[in-house]
Amino acid sequence: MTRAPVARLATHHKEGRDPDENDDRAVGGTGSRFALADGASTSARADVWAEILVCAYVLEGADILEPIVLESLRSDWWQQVHSDDLPWYALAKLQHGGAATFVGMDINFAEQRYCAFAVGDACLLHIRRGRVITAGPLNHPRRFGRTPPLITTQAGDHSHRATLWEHEDGYVCGDQVVLASDGLAKYLLEQHCSGATIDVAAIPGNDNEFRAWVADARRAGMDNDDTTICMVQL
To answer: What domains appear along the chain, each with residue ranges and CATH number?
Structure first.
């Protein structure tokens, strides 16, 4: 009998900012799809764009990179964020558009396989008995930088396809897959590269306890950034 995975989601905003300035979004549930998007804080209404991307992929089952679908999502973003009574500087920023990194996973329960894709530095880590067996799009902490590839709201922009990461693999019961925003992914990969095992079960799955865990991790060297995780127990 096929067992559905259990997912836990948690997020914490960047220290020094308000919770409503958190541009990360993640969605997972009882279905087969899970996703995380990290909105680029320098872009316009990145929070709305991240929300649109993860909801379209997980809740609507959409192929968010298919050109017609992507243009429709971009139109949705514009309709949600645009208003003629916005101040001139807000309207000017909207013209430059929103942007986000993205990682999504779709599980085939019957065959115990999953397929995933990502753009930018939001990462997937496939973990077995505390060891990372697959990581992508970035697989080493030194590969993280300040200007990751992004999915943007700009009409006709398909530059993300040049760096699209796609992966398909099997899993065994007991494996864990972590979808993580960049700072957390980098931190977990630093642990992996140092030879330490990664205890995913020790990462809290509710926001209150996750905040305390993130604070400890930041004191231990994790980057101060919006921090979001989607943990899937297979």
So the answer is: 6-233 (3.60.40.10)
